[in-house]
Amino acid sequence: MVLVVFSSLTWLVMMLSIMLPSVLKKEEKAFLFCVIVLFICNGSWIFIEELKFIELASPLANYFSFLLFRTVIIPFSIMMGLSVWLSPISFFKKKRVTIILYCFLFLVEWASIKLHVYYYQKWNYLYSMFFYFFVQIISYFLLRWFRQFTCKEE
Predict the structure, then answer these.
(1) d(Cα 139, Cα 1) in Å, to the nearest integer?
(2) Each residue of 74-85: pLDDT tens digit?
(3) Three-state DSSP class for 123?
(4) What's the pLDDT at 154?
(5) In the chain, which ranges are E strands?
(6) Residue 107 is part of which domain span?
(7) In 3D, which of 47, 57, 49 has the Cα closest to residue 119?
(8) What is the pLDDT of residue 39?
(9) Which residues of the chain have pLDDT under 70?
(10) Are the C-beta atoms of 82 and 139 separated by less than 8 Å?
């Protein structure tokens, strides 16, 4: 059940990412994906293994669901949010899409807890949202740096 839910969510996020118009080039998407996965995986390692803030469930399906969430759903969601931030739409629409994005990530996080994919020890939903927002801000500035660097190369 858990694996079906997270596989479906992964499929949904990837299809939305492919179908929605994007202002990002393929190289920028690849760079962003690598940067976001790097921050998410390292952050997860620190919070789970080193600080023991989150405890993972042991069944393989739950662990694979956790990996899908951390390595596909979160990065593609944040990339869609960055694409909206960089698009020429009104600030109100950007804010609305960002709120929808974080509500979606919150619901997936909530489903992870309810489906026993992992358990919070000294962690909560607010910390997760701050972490995702931090990753999105860092990704935004790294994307600006990447664009500046590639423009100088050309």
Answers:
(1) 33
(2) 999 999 999 999
(3) coil
(4) 59
(5) 54-56, 118-120
(6) 26-148
(7) 57
(8) 93
(9) 152-154
(10) yes
Q: What are phi and psi of 118, to 5 degrees?
A: -155, 170
Tell me the C-alpha distance between 135 and 78, whole Å.
8
- pLDDT value at residue 136: 94
Whether residue 54 contacts residue 118, with contact meaning beta carbons closer than 8 Å, is answered with yes
Residue 36: inside a domain: yes
Domain count, the chain: 1
Residue 46 tokens read as 């620190």
- Name the token pair of 142: 């790294």
Domain membership of residue 46 (yes or no) is yes
Count the residues in the chain: 154
Identify the pLDDT of residue 68.
Answer: 93
Count of alpha carbons within 13 angstroms of residue 64, beta-carbon side? 10
Task: Please tell me the distance from the alpha carbon of residue 154 to that of residue 37, in angstroms, as a whole number.
Answer: 27
Handedness of CA 71, 46, 120, 52 (dihedral sign): positive
